[in-house]
Amino acid sequence: MYRLSVAAGQAMVFIVFFAAWEVLVHLLQIKPVILPPPSRIAVSAWENRELLLVNTWPTFVAITLGFLYAVATGFVIAIGIAYSRIIRELTYPFLVAAQILPKIAFAPLFLIWFGFGLTPKIVIAALIAFFPVVINTAKGLTSVDKELLQYMDSLGASGWEKFTKISLPWAMPYFFAALKISITLAIVGAVVGEFVAAGEGLGYIINASNISLDTELMFAAIVCMSVLGILLFLVIVAAERLIVVNAQDDASGASATM
Amino acid sequence: MSKAPGISIKNLSVSFRTKTSTVTALDDVSFDIAPGSFLSIVGPSGCGKTTLLKILSGVLQPTSGTVLFDGEPLSRLKTQGQVGYVFQRPLLLPWRTTLDNVMLTMEVARRGMSRAEREAEARRWLKIAGLQGFEERFPHELSGGMQQRVSICRALAFQPRILLMDEPFAALDEITRETLQEELLLLWAQTETTVVFITHSIPEAVLLSEQIVVMSARPGRVLERIPVPFERPRTEETRERPEFLALASHIRGLLRHRDPVTA
Q: Which intervals of the chain form a coiled coil (chain A) (predicted)?
């Protein structure tokens, strides 16, 4: 009962927000080109549905591929950092420094390196989604309870058994926390890539409608992107609930990282 | 079932060198543990109980003296897969169910068993420990006492030849503690495992053991080795018997006489 009323209250916040937006735009007579009311955005989204859908696909591909590359390489490097002192000590300062860099600033450079189209988008998405995976997963793997590992030693466990039975499941909550951050970063990366180096995709639509002062279409594209982002995020939450025991306890934290 | 080994400790000393001095953790400790028996080590903090445990598990080498494990010098390789542990913390895997937690030791140390055999064995132990119906629960759904029961089942399920218990009930409340002591005896009766049990609690040692080694602190020395003659099974009533209370008070006297801080 309590949960139900909370859900109703949460929905109300959204409704109040859009209603206030609609009303204020009319009351203050704000020009649609500055801020269109939600109703006009909805109409524009419907009228341009084909254009938006066609352009959602390349953005989705860029986000997903960039994210998957980031997760795969990040995971492997995290294992290296967790299990090899040399790798850890050599690469850690570099990784921290690289994490601080504003990687978005490299987007125009990637246009020069990788040309126009899908590749630079994937590279930017992967590059900024990569660091949370490395750092979080390495932290998860190294924070394993030492007594548990000693316990496994006393039983005569092999290194592989310790990894698969203890360290890997131990690191899973850290890994999924990283995935949730990384997917949102991959979205940012893909869109920035489309701003600078693409002839299609939602980022391109935003850019193009900006030039033609079609603010309604711009908002419609932003809505599409938000829906896409939320869906991708939910896929990760679902995977987490399948794999990590007690993941639901963490659900509020998950939405906080969004 | 493999036969439990006897352990023979002779003139064992362990010292650690620090920057400024040498700390003697154990000083000339000797005692024997009969095969399949239950021995407790009682003493104040700093009496080297944990050091002794590390020696017995083969993690630490003694400075001098010998430890014989079934007549042979003890080594890490020999004890691997032969020694079960129960610590103060249950150390369960939070992502595994009760049943899967108990199966862990068999998965690693008893590779010859099939999955079905391991599962049957785990279920059998959980039943003896009164955890039937909790097989599919996760550790966070269990009370502290139940978690420690699971930990004991896990340690006994692979039939280790020695079970080392390091203050396993210290973190539990008095009532849970007493229940678990009696249950431990029930579980142990099902095995031929030799138990070395470390505790701060004098009544606990008297109830459980066949032999008690009383130790002093800094350096750790054996004050007395006391056989406990009470017949088994030992129950609630055993705790009330005058001989039980007399023995407990004798041990308390030994420790107080030595360590004025705890008096």
A: none
Which of B127, B159, B191 is where one domain is finished? B159
Q: pLDDT band at A254, cuts 50/70/90?
A: very low
Number of structural domains chain B divides into = 2
A155/B81 CB distance under 8 A: yes
Distance in Å, alpha carbon of B179 to nearest chain A alpha carbon: 26
Looking at B137, B159, B181, the residue that finishes a domain is B159
Tens digit of each residue's pLDDT (9 = 90 or more) over B216-240: 887 888 888 988 888 888 888 888 8
Whether B154 has its CB under 8 Å from any CB of chain A: the answer is no
Q: Cα-Cα-Cα-Cα dihedral of B13, B16, B17, B19, to 10°?
A: -150
Instruction: List, for residues A126-177, the tens digit of each pLDDT value.
Output: 999 999 999 999 999 999 999 899 889 888 888 999 999 999 999 999 999 9
Q: In this predicted complex, what is the ipTM?
A: 0.82
- Band (pLDDT 50/70/90 cuts) for residue B260 is low
CB pair distance less than 8 Å for A155 and B109 = yes
CA distance B24 to B1: 39
Task: Tell me which residue range forms the domain holding B117.
Answer: 87-159
Domain coverage including residue A179: 36-257
Nearest residue of chain A to residue B86 (CA atoms): A151
Residues B68 and B173 in one domain: yes
Same domain, B205 and B255: yes
Residues A4, A95: one domain? no
Q: Which helix (H) or strand (E) holds A44?
A: helix A38-47
d(C-alpha B76, C-alpha B59), whole Å:
6
